[in-house]
Amino acid sequence: MFETLIDFDRELLLAVNGSDSLFLDRMVRMLTNGLTWIPLYLSLFYMVMKNNDNFRRLLYVLLGAGLCILIAGTLNDEIVKPLVARWRPTHDPQIGTLVDIVDGYRGGKYGFFSSHAANTMSIAVYFIWMVRSRRLSIALVIWSLLNCWTRMYLGVHFPGDIMVGLLWGVAVGTGVYFLYGRITRGMYTPRNLNPDQYTPGCYRRLDCNWPVGVFVLTLVFVFIKACII
């Protein structure tokens, strides 16, 4: 049964890995690069700063985001991947020669589970719980899934690596949020806010549009740059 799942995982990876399009190759290489998303991170920071006038609460929000990255990705890279030691598709002895390699990029030796999936989904879920804006939630989930797709396109993660990473990211993001809520419980003062202007998480809706807008503009920028390079 386990071998059947492994074989299916390999077949599914080969079905979605790579393409004959140089445009897609260029676009995916940019989308999977963490530097591409710095404007998104800065816009999230701006949103948090604008909606937390209590310095301690602001600090805890940022520490929570850092904790998501630490638990979801760093511990995985340092402990889980070497311990499980599952080959990345690009290094897999059985299908490595069949994987479409983009610009010579193969990643490290081991790929279980995907830190890209875990990191992005943990951040997405953390802010989904924190802010509770439908528009922002949709944008962050799409951002995470887009990153996951790039990892399979590049052949550096099996779909199984991605699924486990996403599940771990959901668990970490949720756990860190509720830890944050427990620590900061006494810092909030009940306020009657206009639901047309504020989310259930007490974030101003106009401020929540900044990360959404930056996400869309980043996609447009990547698309245009991939066209002209």
Automatic annotation (TrEMBL):
Top-level taxon: Bacteria
Regions crossing the membrane: 27-46, 58-75, 110-129, 136-156, 162-180
Family annotation (Pfam families): PAP2
InterPro entries: PAP2/HPO, PAP2/HPO_sf
Domain Phosphatidic acid phosphatase type 2/haloperoxidase: 62-177
Keywords of this entry: Membrane, Transmembrane, Transmembrane helix
PANTHER family found in the cross-reference section: AT30094P, SPHINGOSINE-1-PHOSPHATE PHOSPHOHYDROLASE
Name of the protein described by the UniProt record: Phosphatase PAP2 family protein
